Amino acid sequence: MVSYRSNKNMFVLPGVLSSLFIVGIGLLFSATLASAQDGPYVIGTDGDPACPAGSDRIIDMNECEAAAAAPNVAAIYIYGFAGNSNSWGNGAVPGCHGYQGMGNAVYFNADLESTGSEIEDSDTPICKRIPVSTAGG
In angstroms, what is the C-alpha Rg of the chain? Predict the structure, then answer.
């Protein structure tokens, strides 16, 4: 049995309803994570400057701006494309990246040699999916 308290009332979900509620929340969370990887752009792992397998770094600011507007990216980085992050220096993720700290936006670091040495847990690469070839051989 699970109890929930609001400001004025307390309500209790009996066993079966409680289980369905918890499963429903889990499915909603899983669907949100899956949709974050749908489309031509892939969101990397928080705190890791590398792009996920099957994707490449976005090294063009205009493409980064387009990625910020993609539904799966815009759902997470609600403030959209915020511009250049070069002021962060060699510590920022090179190329296109999202930052969920104070800005919750997408930034572009033109220093493509940046090591990402000062990357924070909330700094995440945004990458382009590598098309899968359908050509036979």
Answer: 19
d(CA 22, CA 5): 16
This prediction's pTM: 0.67
Q: Quote the CA–CA distance of 74 and 48 in Å, as a whole number.
A: 20
What are the tokens at 94? 């090179």
3-state secondary structure (DSSP) of residue 45: coil
**Residue 137's pLDDT is what?**
53
Q: Could you give the CA distance from residue 96 to residue 123 in angstroms, rounded to a whole number? A: 10
Buried b (16+ CB within 10 A) or exposed e, 29-47: eeeeeeebeeeebbbbeee
pLDDT in tens, 14-70: 554 444 344 343 434 334 444 555 789 999 998 888 999 999 999 999 999 999 999
